[in-house]
Structure formats: C-alpha cells, structure tokens
Amino acid sequence: MESRCENCIVRQFNSLRAMSKEELKRVSDSKTTRLIKKGEAIFKEGEKLDGVFCVRDGVSKLSKLSENGKDQIVKLASKGEVIGQRSVVAEESVNLSAVAVSDMEVCFIPKEGIVSTLHTNPNFTLEVLRHMAHDLKEADDVIVNMSQKSVKQRMAEAFLYLKNNFGEDEEGYLRLVLSREDISNVVGTAIESCIRIISEFKKKGYLRTSGKRIGIKDEKALKNLVEGF
User: Fold this and answer.
1) The pLDDT of residue 41
2) pTM for this entry
3) Per-residue pLDDT tens for 43-56?
C-alpha cells in the first residue's frame, strides 16, 4: 500500500517533519515501500547504504556483533523511526545490523533526497542532529547500565521498557514477543542466565509466561529491583 510522505502520520515522529511540502514531495516520488518478514535483515553491519529506512509498521532490532560472536542489541526501532541515518550523513558503512523482530513495512528513501535537503534546509539539519544526539544519549545510558547494574536489574528494566514502549495485548502479555535469545542480547547476558532469571521472577510472582509470551504481574516489584530496593 503506497502512501505519500506528505500524508504519512509516521513522519511526525522523525526528522522528516522539518521538510517543506516540496521537499517531502520529492522524497515521496523517489521512495519505495518494502515489506520485511520477521527474521529478515533490513541491512547488515558493514554494508554501505544508498539511503535511509523509515519504519511505517513493525519493530526492528539494531545489533552489533561482538568479538565472541554474540549479538548485542543496542536499540529496538519501531513505527516512526528512521534507521541508517548516521551512516548516510557520515558517508560510512553501517556499524549495526537491522533485523525485523516482527513483520514490518518500511519505506526506503534514497540518500540524494536526504543529503540535498541537509544542504538547503537548516531546520531539517537541526532535526537530524537532534535525533542523532538522542541516539548517542541512549547509547551512553546502555553503557552505564551495563557497567553499574546487575543482570537481574537489567532484566527487570528490559521488561518494563517493553511494556512502556510497546504495550500489552488483550490478555495482559507484552505485545512485543521477543525470543529468550533476543532478551539476553538486549540485556547483555548469556541465554542460560536469562532463562534462569525469568523462572526466578515467575517464582517470586513478578512475571507470568505462556509459551514465548511474557506478562508482568508485579510492576512495582520490578521497579523496586531496578532502583536497588
């Protein structure tokens, strides 16, 4: 389902909102919409990107492969986010991989439209800088969390993050279903520790599970754990 950037509600969440009608029209004329199946890569670490991807629907995990061959998930990008922006602006290959964790619809915007607007529209340049600064801040927070919080605290924080950002389904389970491996890669721990902590949280009445699905039973207890009580 092709939609025009000018009419797309998603752009209100990202730097495209600072483009003029004319600039949006040019971007819209050059973009293509792609459907990405769960588990498929949008791009892989080390690739040179010819443009950016705007997420219209679904969620992607942005991860970096460490030297021991383990993925560290740095961010979950959802509706309204533009991915690949840093790579295009810096003219460098991407330093992260983006893989769909649910079925996705993304718009691919060739870099010409982005780069030419950076040169002519200072408001757009400022918006792009703001988004990059926000990503840097998030990355700093991840580093501090890794070094200062225990694995249990990081696990509790991950579940709260999933609830606050992606919500719950009708039955009260977290709407975004991540595999145990993905959860361990978000938290930065071994999959065995992740499984052990989930079952400990279940015994304590913090969580409930049904297959891969996880539901939060005691949000206050998880918050207390994160805060070190």
Assistant:
1) 97
2) 0.88
3) 999 999 999 999 99
pLDDT < 70 regions, the chain: 1-2
All residues at 6 or more sequence positions from 71 whose CB lies less than 8 Å from its CB, including other chains: 63, 64, 65, 97, 185
pLDDT over 90, % of the chain: 79
Beta-carbon neighbour count of residue 207 at 10 Å? 23
The residue with tokens 């670490």 is: 45
> What would you measure as the largest C-alpha separation in the chain, in angstroms?
58
Q: How does 165-203 read in b/e, with b if 16+ C-beta sit within 10 Å?
A: ebeeeeeebbebbbeeebbbbbbebeeeebeebbeebee
Residue 229, H or E segment: none
Look up tokens 């004329």; give the residue: 29
Distance CA 77, CA 69 (A): 22
